[in-house]
Design goal:
Elements (H helix, E strand, L loop, with lengths): L2 H11 L2 H11 L11 E3 L2 E4 L4 E7 L1 H5 L8 E8 L5 E9 L4 E5 H4 L6 E9 L3 H5 L5 E2 L2 E6 L3 E8 L5 E3 L5 E3 L3 E9 L4 E2 L2 E8 L6 E9 L5 E8 L4 E8 L4 E10 L5 E5 L4 E5 L1
Parallel strand pairs: 1-8
Antiparallel strand pairs: 1-11, 2-7, 3-6, 3-9, 4-5, 4-7, 9-10, 11-12, 13-19, 14-19, 15-18, 15-20, 16-17, 16-19, 20-21
Length: about 270
Amino acid sequence: MLPNKVNQIAKKILPSFVKNFILNRISFIRRPDEIKSVISDQFPFRNGAWKTYFELLNLPRLFDPVDSDKPYNVRLVFFDQDGKIIHTHESLKHDVGRTTLDLNSIFPDMPSIGTFSCFHNFYSGWLEGEESYLAERGYVGFQNTKLSKTKGYVHGNFDAIAEDSKKSLKSLGTSNFRNREYCLQHELTGHASYELFFVNTTSSSQKITINLKITDQSDTFNTILIIPPRGLRIFKCDVNSKETAKVKIISRLNMARPVVFRSTENSFDVFHG
């Protein structure tokens, strides 16, 4: 039965706390607690040999170009790989439609890997009227000049986290009662090095099993990752020039979709799995 149909039935016959429990299990995300909350993905960042950029758009202007053309605050929250807040940055967003942010300059002590979220502290009555939330799932750019002078871009993956009017955060990711399988939508090809970035958008630790199957080989290789709430873990593997491989991801997450980095001797690519 489709989630919308279940939602309609649940609204009519179930108490609100039961309805919310069920919907949180079958939906990809939870709803924020406050109507004025704003939503963001937890985007991965990289430092060291890498630089990370974020394309900041004036989202209110996209939806309402006439009445929303006034400054508002944008807040960036950075998390380490264990999901702990390590830095925040606030700026006043003017009527400029698009700004490219160099995250390594905004956060000079940024660790080698982690995540960040971008919250547009803007609210308008038309959002409440549509029972909607302003959500940031824009584009992150990565650059590694040792591999290529060209940036690789990937867009947001999830409505991962919400911030309310008091700047309290709520993870929106959900998990299931039992394990589910997610097959990577990309066949690994060599010669290349792969890095799969998994972000836990739920409020509890999650166990992920990565099943790697080399084509034309009978053996499979299993790797287990334990990811804390709002945390990040990476699965790495190399594929030889004459090999291909497939990846199966087993977890209780309703959507265990990683961000994939594929690197060769003189180039790289980044995309959703």
